[in-house]
Protein: AAA family ATPase
Amino acid sequence: MDKQMESLHSTIGDQQQEIVEMKRHFWDEVSVDKEQLFETYVSIMQQAKDLANYERVQDHARRLLTKLGKHIGSPYFGRIDFREEYEVDKLPVTIGLMSVTDENGEHLVYDWRTPIASLFYDYAPGPVRYRTPMGIITGEMTLKRQYLIRSSKLEAVFDTGIQIGDDMLQDMLKRSADTKMKTIVSTIQREQNAIIRDDAHEVLIVQGAAGSGKTSAAMQRIAYLLYKYRDSMHSEQVVLFSPNDLFNDYVSNILPELGESNMTQTTFQQYVDYRLRTTRQIEDVYDQAERLMNPSSEEVGQLERASARWKASESFMAVADAFVTSLMNEGIAFESLGTPKRTVITEEMLREHFYVTLADWSLPARMDKTREWIKGYLKDWAAREVKRVYQRFLKQPNYIGSEEEMMQMSKKHVSKWVREMRRKAHTYGFIKWDALYEQFNAHLPRWCENALAAASTHDASKQTNTSAEKVAVAGLTGIAASHVDPDIMPTASLVANMGEHTLARMNEGIIPYEDASVFLYIMESIEGFNTFNHIRQVVIDEAQDYSAFQYALLSRLFPRSKFTILGDWNQAIYESNRVGRVEMVQRMFPERKSTVIRLKKSYRSTKPISEFAHAILPNGEPAEPFHRDGKPPVVHVVTEAERPQLVFERLQQLREAGCQSIAVLAKDEASSAQVYQLLSQQVEGLKRVTKHTQQFSVGCWVIPSYLAKGLEFDGVIIWDADQEHYGHERDRKLLYTVCTRALHELHLYAVGQPSPLLPVAEMK
Ligand SMILES: Nc1ncnc2c1ncn2[C@@H]1O[C@H](COP(=O)(O)OP(=O)(O)OP(=O)(O)O)[C@@H](O)[C@H]1O
Structure:
């Protein structure tokens, strides 16, 4: 690698000299002589081509140099000796973060993503097989060895068995939590490797316990896919949907560290904000969480929680479908188009065109055709209007100028309004979208009845095996209708209350979070679904936080993409998504081949912390903790007055014990602000995370519980693990989520009675 870097340095240096020379003499050959015009042209083109070539080579050399520089301190981490069937000689295969070849092109180190390297992750010494583009290769692995090399120093060597050595993993897991996620390439576990290299499924769903390496596996998977399909797939064709900007920042280093460019990172909220045609403010998931945690009354809380739950479900999707189906015949509120003084196209004209002229077309086709009709109408209108304005100008004595100028002025005057109206038509501004969603809520019980009726038609058609059209009657997609569960349909009066409550929120100028995706789904069902065809791979992290509507939208948004979906339904802390299940996610991609992989082992926390956290969820998915010793979690029962001082002392103690990142987790935003105020005087460098925080640094942080999702800290202090804050059954998953953020130490503080959801722990 040293030799290669040296040679690259000199190539870059020599070429740089060449480029400077070429640029300096670029114009020397240029002749102004007309006779030599053609020769001049050829010479310039040739030079430009050479220059571009040099620059391309330079660019490549520079990138390679950076890569070599990055990996030279730790050029490999594994070795296997492999003897192919019917061969005599063993091939030693050294594995690292990048392939390195000698001057003859022979591999010195194999990239961890090469087919042969998969043996390292999948097998113990013995008979083995691996898949290559040419077919399956079988043979015997006679040695499997791991190296720990840091800063060009060999620190340890292990010969290992089935799993990638526990010693190595212990060493990795003992380290401190960083502000950025770590790569796990040298210790990828077999079941994680299956996720990383899966190529057979269009939708890969991973359900894994907290800390089981879902996010890590997904990141290495992207690096793997970018390597495998390097000729046809680029990083900008990969999109990551993550919970927030902070999380985006946390994982943003992985791909560059693995030598790839970063993918596009976004949040679903950003898409909704960009796309939803509303003048109201769209609530985000965090404001929703705050609202549901702190309702104005118990009654409102019950209603809002039920509403949020129901509005995320497939059953409710059937209700939205029923509403959209009804709009085929009537009900869309139109917005007239015109100038400030005159209406040009009235609501009535639009209604007539949409519901009579285009009655036989689908809704998206009607939208498109109405838009075109408006544009045509405006063209005729503009011609008439220009004449009218021109006549008016002619009659006005204070306008002076030639007839030509007057005509120009008239055209300019009219085209300003035409442009404005065309823009409105283009963005479907001829529909009163907010009014439409209000109408949906005003008659919610009616759409529920329609949905139930459609569902029974659907069931009947299924039983009698009648035509596909009948199934489609059940809803636009047919997916939702088949999963209408009459048992979870709220009663008619509750439904009416929910509708009214949403209307009241809309009157206050807000679209509640649980409604935003429903509204968008209705809007896109009418307009036609928006699509991004060039995207090849979509990764959805914290998948349990997405509703049926969000999946339905995402699957249509990326029609040509494969999906990697990672979630832990044990961490479904948002009320609006508790109905979500892995099976529901599969149903949302009916035409794509999908599979579910379960990760059962959790790596993040020490064994005592993992066991403590899992005992909070006795009915959750089972998880086996990786065996790493540590101190058991402690529940501290304290008085309110002494808590700040005790937590301060705990922070000091954790810092002295070597914890570099420590989080004090308070349940909601208000208490997190209060804790920050109480502690910031004493704790030097204390920082606070809010939903607007975009970046993370090592140190002590105060964080509202729900914002700690996906992150990890050396030490975690839970400020309010008491009956008052975590007293309800509905708080169980949140409590589990916050406890599983800790790598090495977990301390819970309770004023008065500790939370009844906690397992019996050491109390102080
Ligand atoms: N094979 C591995 N080798 C080394 N460390 C690993 C491995 N798998 C997971 N880890 C570590 O375990 C921790 C948890 O991983 P990660 O955040 O990917 O899990 P997760 O399943 O996404 O967790 P959560 O759902 O709780 O957010 C990280 O510190 C990660 O580096």
